[in-house]
Specification:
122 residues, two-stranded parallel ribbon, 5 helices, flat
Amino acid sequence: GSICTTQEVCACGRAQASAVYHVAKYARQYGIPVIADGGISNSGQIVKALAIGASTVMCGSLVAGTEEAPGQYFFRDGMRLKRYRGMGSLAAMGKGSTERYFANDTNIKVAQGVSGALVDKG
């Protein structure tokens, strides 16, 4: 997603458009749906992901600052913000996401995401 740092931290990963295209092309042979999850930040990117083969699109950062999304609002410098964190962030690992990053049995945690705040989107 948009706050994922796996490519930078682990030196692995691939450009999302080509990854979605190639995986969708292969998965289509077996009737398997594909989710595009790569930091979608506007409606044009949703259309592009669907056009190159995705069955659906993750839109985390697009909706994360809305009232319907989980999380606590807070104020900073007169602006209403909502906390937002990637599942690979140290904050999320502290709340139980270590298993999905194979970090359950290790003392050293390597973040593959960040935590931050988004402006209130209503």
